[in-house]
Write a structure and sequence with these properties.
Layout lengths: L2 H5 L2 E4 L3 E6 L31 E2 L8 E7 L2 H12 L4 E9 L6 E5 L2 E6 L3 E6 L7 E10 L2 E8 L6 H9 L21 E8 L9 E4 L4 H9 L6
Parallel strand pairs: 4-11
Antiparallel strand pairs: 1-2, 2-4, 3-4, 5-10, 5-11, 6-9, 7-8, 9-10, 11-12
Organism: Paramagnetospirillum caucaseum
Family: Belongs to the pseudouridine synthase RluA family.
Keywords: Isomerase
């Protein structure tokens, strides 16, 4: 990515927050395998302010879509409280292998982080894990795939990916939890929308929607999406 490309992905901006359409494949934080990461580009989103915006939450490297940034310390603190109080609504889209029998439902399955020597860590459904709930609905089906909307009630690591697998329809392109660990297909998971109260009391709530990334378009159309 270039600074101009990141700048072009701003979906919403006011005096307190920025909502960015994070590209798939870009980690939000630095790491051993992430020499290129979003935090390197945040100074370019200052828009003339001395303070650099900061992440209010995170998305996985391979997930695209709505990512909320706070433009100053007070905004970050208030956004943090909103997340703690479950006042930030998040909607995800995915394309999955197969499809559930029903058209909608809720996955209520606790998630536990486990480590294996030489294999790093994974998340799995386990009664000893943290409570985790995700509401879901099927928006379309076709070609052995399903287009599913997810509304997580909790915010656990890899929650949607694990809950999709638990439901019997793992995400297309999920090399960790899907049926094909050698897949070359990108993860088909989009942080489709976010909504939360405006930090300025006189303003309407913030509601932002991200477009599907290019790598999801073909599969979404197979499932009936028409781009409207």
């Amino acid at each position: 990515m270039t600074p101009d490309e990141i700048l072009s992905r701003v979906l919403y901006k006011d005096q307190d927050v920025i909502v960015l359409d994070k590209p798939a494949g870009l980690a939000v934080h630095a790491g051993p395998n992430s020499p290129d990461h979003l935090e390197l580009y945040l100074p370019g989103l200052s828009f003339g302010w001395a303070e650099v915006p900061k992440l209010a939450h995170r998305l996985d490297r391979d997930t695209s879509g709505c990512l909320i940034l706070g433009r100053h310390a007070k905004a970050i603190k208030r956004l943090g409280k909103m997340f703690e109080q479950h006042r930030v609504d998040k909607v995800y889209w995915s394309v999955c292998h197969g499809a559930p029998e029903a058209d909608s439902g809720t996955v209520d399955a606790p998630l536990l982080k486990v480590s294996a020597r030489g294999q790093g860590w994974r998340i799995k459904v386990d009664p000893a894990g943290q409570p985790s709930m995700t509401d879901w609905s099927v928006l379309g089906r076709g070609g052995g795939l399903s287009w599913i909307e997810w509304r997580p009630r909790t915010g656990r690591t890899h929650q949607i990916r694990i809950h999709a697998k638990h439901l019997g329809c793992p995400l297309l392109g999920d090399a960790y939890y899907g049926p094909d660990p050698e897949t070359k297909v990108r993860l088909h998971l989009l942080a489709r929308a976010v909504s939360f109260p405006a930090l300025a009391p006189s303003k309407e709530p913030v509601r932002v929607t991200a477009p599907p990334p290019a790598h999801m378009i073909e599969a979404l159309r197979t499932c009936g999406w028409r781009g409207d």
